[in-house]
Amino acid sequence: MKLILMRHGSIRLPDEEKCYIGQTDRSMTQEGQTEVDKSLERLGGQIGWVDEIWSSDLKRCVETAERAAMHFEMPFRTDQRLREINLGDWEGQSVRLIRQEYPKEYRIRGEHPGNYRTPGGENFLQVMIRAVQFTQERVQCLQEEKVFLFITHAGVIRTLCCCRDGRNPDELLQYQIGYGEYVVWDATKAAVMERLKDQSYH
Questions:
Q1: Is the full-model pTM beyond 0.90?
Q2: CA-based angle 133:86:184, to the nearest 5?
Q3: Is-contact 7 178, C-beta < 8 A?
Q4: In this structure, what DSSP letter does residue 186 have?
Q5: For residue 187, how far is the Cα from the chain centroid?
Q6: N or C: which end of the chain has fewer CB within 10 A?
Q7: Spatial contact of 121 and 90, defined as CB atoms under 8 Å apart
Q8: Exposed, middle or buried, 132 (CB in 10 Å: 0-12/13-18/19+)?
Q9: Residues 177, 182, 183, 188, CA torsion sign
Q10: Distances (CA, A) of 151 to 104, 106, 117
C-alpha cells in the first residue's frame, strides 16, 4: 500500500510576520494554489491514481483537497484528527512576541517539541497519537493494497514520519516538508500496521 502525506499550500500570515498558526483557520494564497497544482501533477505522474482522499477539516487543507479531488476525479472526506497541533494561548501570536514574553517556555518547547504542551494546547505526542489512531482505522479495514492521500499539516506529517521511522516525536524537526509538498510511505499493510502499533518510540 501507499500512504501519501501531502501538506497544504502556502497561507497568508498576519502582517507577513512569522507567527504560530496551529489550528487558526486560514485560506491558501494564490501562490499556495499554484504549489498544490504543480505537486498534484507530479504526484499523478508518480503514482497514477489514489483510492481514497482524506483531509484535515481546516480551510487550507479543504481547499487543497478540493483541487486534489478535481485532479483525481473523486470525492474527499475530512477528519479532525488530521488537524495541525492546537497551540492554545500561543495561537496567532508572533514568534517574536512569544520569545520575548516567555523565553523559558520558548526554549523548552524548542528542545522538547514532542512533550512540551503550550498553555491550553497540545504537544506533538498528542498529535501523533490522534494521527496514528486515524491511520490505523483506515489501514486495518483494507481488503487489498490501496493508495491513500492524506492532506494535512506539517506537524501531522512529521509525527507520522517519526512513527514510520521509529523515532521519538522530539525529533520531528528532522523532517522538512514544504508547502504543497508530499512524502510517500510505501509498505505492505502488515508493515504499516506494525509501525503504527509500535509504542516504544513514545
A1: yes
A2: 50
A3: yes
A4: E
A5: 19
A6: C
A7: yes
A8: buried
A9: positive
A10: 34, 29, 24
